[in-house]
Amino acid sequence: MPFTLPPLPYPYDALEPYIDKQTMQIHHDLHHGAYVNNLNAALKDYPDFANMTIEELLRGINKVPEAIRTAVRNNGGGHYNHTMFWEIMKPGGSKEPKGTLADAIKALGGFEQVKEQINDAGLKRFGSGWAWLVLDGGHLKILSTANQDCPLMDGQFPVLGVDVWEHAYYLKYQNRRGEYLKAWWNVVNWDEVGKRYESATKK
Ligand code: MN
User: Fold this and answer.
1) If you measure from the C-alpha of residue 202 to the centroid of ligand 1, how many angstroms do you get, rounded to a whole number?
2) Measured in angstroms, how far is the CA atom of residue 176 from the centroid of ligand 1?
3) Four-point Cα dihedral 43, 45, 51, 53, nearest 10
4) Residue 92 confidence (pLDDT)
5) CB 4 within 8 A of CB 37
6) Distance 100 CA to ligand 1 centre (A)
7) Fewer CB near the terminus (10 Å): N or C of the chain?
8) What number of other Cβ atoms are within 10 A of residue 107's Cβ?
């Protein structure tokens, strides 16, 4: 099996009270687990693609054979997006961006405004998807995608992304997506987000 479900980097209840234990259990083990299983199943008869990294697969999504392209888009996107999502969260969070990312966020209008714009992008996303802070041609941008589409598919680098599928928040917040989005910032690991930004700007 080319891809495996990475363990959650902290206990299921570590993000309480902002994200509850049961949501984390179901979200990681069952939802992310299913994306990994379905991705492996799709790639079973395509060794050339099964040997690629997940980043290579998503950046080159249009070169993936048509017969499995939708499966790779949905499940490969799901695998990458969730792996990033677990890593950019942390119990207690790390409060605010630092270093070159902090400067870039200041240039985009400031930390508070950027958070508001990402929340707004997440709220306006109809149905399921993600809200993102991406690096696009050297510039930070805020946008949202549908389903499990990943900015890598559009040549952008996802610096930070928040899952706005109902499975990410419904048990605790029900239909109150805005409340979940506001609470989510309490568990963002800005050290990790800063590392993602720096590694992308060096490329
Ligand atoms: Mn999810």
Assistant:
1) 29
2) 16
3) -10
4) 84
5) no
6) 29
7) C
8) 10
Total residue count of the chain as it appears in this document:
203
If you average pLDDT over every residue of the chain, what do you get?
97
> What is the 62 CA–ligand 1 centroid distance (Å)?
23
The strand ranges marked E within 55-187 are 129-136, 139-146, 157-163
Q: All domains of the chain, ordered by start, with CATH?
A: 21-87 (1.10.287.990), 99-202 (3.55.40.20)
Task: Report the candidate in 64, 59, 58, 135 with the shortest Cα–Cα distance to residue 100.
Answer: 135
CA of 26 to the centre of ligand 1 (A): 10
Distance 107 CA to ligand 1 centre (A): 30
Residue 99 in this model has a pLDDT that exceeds 90: yes
Packing angle of the helix pair 111-124, 177-184 (nearest 10 deg): 150
pLDDT at residue 203 greater than cutoff 80:
no
The pLDDT assigned to 95 comes to 84
Using the predicted structure, report yes or no on whether residue 70 has a pLDDT greater than 80.
yes
Res. 47 pLDDT band, cuts 50 70 90: very high
